[in-house]
Amino acid sequence: MHDVSEPAGVRAQVTAEEWQTRVELAAAYRLVAHFGWDDLIFTHISARVPGQPDQFLINPYGMLFDEITASSLVKVDHHGEPVMATDYDVNPAGFLIHSAIHEARPEVQCVLHTHTAYGVAVSAQEDGLLPISQQSIFPLARIAYHGYEGVALNDDERPRLVADLGQASFLVLRNHGLLTCGRSVPEALLSMYTLESACRIQILAQAGGGTLTRIPDAIVATSVEQSRQVTKGKGAGLAWPGLLRRLDRLDPGYRT
Predict the structure, then answer these.
(1) Residue 84 gets which letter from DSSP?
(2) Where are the beta strands (DSSP E) in the chain?
(3) Exposed e or buried b for every residue in 100-135, given b needs 16+ CB within 10 A?
(4) Class of residue 1 by CB neighbours under 10 A (exposed 0-12, middle 13-18, buried 19+)
(5) Which secondary structure element, helix H or strand E, spans residue 82, and what is its range?
(6) Beta pairing partners, 178
(7) pLDDT in the model for residue 205
């Protein structure tokens, strides 16, 4: 059994920028657990190391999301090999998906993937995400779909995954789950919050058994601009400080 204590002195071995990214990524893992989006030790959130475009931070495979700290995150290269000492492995399926996206999309700093019940349920529906809620219109403007090819262990899947994603920020992995891309950790987390909410509302609305009212395409097409107005141009930066305050009240240990 692995010792889940944080490696000593990690903060002293990395740049201030990397440490900040580690704190934000650890916070994202804890928030995913807090919202009930985690799947034991499975699924991942990855973040590019500032100043090192071919190095990434990812969860230590075997550690629960509510145990993850800034120091315990594993730093790997683009082959998935650790570049700092660690007692933990890296999930090969998780790294394949994340590394493919990071390599193809240099502007993407964070990739967040979940296996939530509502997300998987929508991913199994032929029509995918429906325009039936205010929450749905924001992902619908930038959403893509990738067909299921089994557990992501085959390098041959990488180009198909990347091609299906294109320039989208939201990806529905058919029969598998959800994925969001962000220019920062907060952006990927808040995008997932919106996508997960839209999926949950869809399943609940369908369970009601009544005819669903769809939002017109013209309204969906204006959602990106509406989002900018609602967040005062601050995007994810508007809600993120509050989420950190909540997390600090619950358990500030993620910062260590």
Answers:
(1) S
(2) 45-49, 52-58, 74-77, 110-114, 143-146, 170-173, 177-182
(3) bbbeebeebbbbbbbbbebbbebbeeeebbbbbbeb
(4) exposed
(5) none
(6) 114, 172
(7) 98
Task: Please tell me the predicted confidence (pLDDT) of residue 5.
Answer: 46
Q: How far apart are CA 121 and CA 199, in angstroms?
A: 8
Tokens of 122: 């929508």
Task: Report the percent of the chain where pLDDT is more than 70.
Answer: 93
- Quick one: what percent of the chain has pLDDT higher than 90? 79
The pTM of the full predicted model, rounded to 2 decimals, is 0.91
User: pLDDT per residue over 129-187, tens digit each?
Assistant: 999 999 999 999 999 999 999 988 788 999 999 999 999 999 999 999 999 999 999 99
Amino acid of residue 77: D
Decide: 41 and 88 in contact? Cβ < 8 Å.
no
Amino acid at the residue 173: L
Element (H, E) at 124: none
Question: How many angstroms separate the first and last alpha carbons of the chain?
Answer: 21
For residues 91 and 72, what is the distance between their CA atoms, to the nearest angstrom? 15
Q: Helical H runs in 148-239?
A: 157-165, 185-207, 217-221, 223-230
Q: How many CA atoms lie within 13 A of 250 on its CB side?
A: 15
Tokens of 163: 């091609």
pLDDT tens for each residue of 190-223: 999 999 999 999 999 999 999 999 999 999 988 8
CA distance 111 to 170: 10
Cα–Cα–Cα angle for 15, 19, 24, rounded to 5 degrees:
150
Residues in the chain: 256
